[in-house]
Design a protein that fits this description.
Blueprint: E1 5-12, H1 15-29, E2 34-37, E3 46-47, E4 60-65, H2 68-77, E5 89-95, E6 100-105, E7 120-125, E8 129-136, H3 141-153
Antiparallel strand pairs: 1-8, 2-3, 2-4, 4-5, 5-8, 6-7
Helix pairs in contact: 1-3
């Protein structure tokens, strides 16, 4: 059952490594974290153990639940919040089908102060762009926490010359 909403992120870099960083961080919030890789039809939810699951290099789909109780209710309830205001979510990633993207700069990209700013269209150009789709329960603090945590993990990690997040 699909009942949640999508948030699409565009990133450059090794997305599977970022998802692993995300799951490591999320497991601190959900110590009984259960993960299934392979898509909506995946039926083998396993406890999250860093490094134990192989994610697809170019594309993949990961289902995430807090515990066995959330896994059991997912088919009947879909992407909905439970009594703790948390719910299951999925992360799908694949190469973007384009090398440039038109976007609206809603905030001043130069971070200037004291100037009036009017949003304008910009072009993002690059190779190796990946689309990551987060399907989670409807808008609210939980969904925002998922997206914010994933966004933080999409930056470079220690193996990529960055810092751990």
């Amino acid at each position: 059952m699909i009942t949640g909403g999508d948030t699409v992120l565009v990133a450059c870099g090794p997305v599977p490594a970022a998802i692993e960083r995300f799951l490591d961080r999320w497991s601190a919030r959900w110590p009984q974290l259960r993960v299934a890789a392979g898509g909506e039809d995946a039926d083998a939810f396993l406890p999250w153990v860093p490094g134990a699951m192989r994610l697809g290099e170019l594309s993949g789909h990961v289902l995430v639940a807090r515990d066995e109780e959330m896994v059991a209710g997912w088919d009947d309830s879909g992407y909905v919040l439970d009594s703790r205001q948390e719910g299951p979510f999925s992360l799908a990633y694949e190469p973007a089908g384009w090398r440039s993207l038109k976007a609206m700069a809603l905030e001043d990209p130069y971070v200037r102060t004291g100037f009036g700013y009017e949003p304008y269209e910009i072009s993002l150009i690059g190779s190796g762009l990946q689309m990551i789709t987060v399907v989670a329960p409807e808008e609210g603090p939980f969904r925002q926490a998922v997206v914010d945590t994933l966004t933080a993990c999409l930056g470079p990690g220690p193996a990529d010359g960055g810092t751990a997040r």
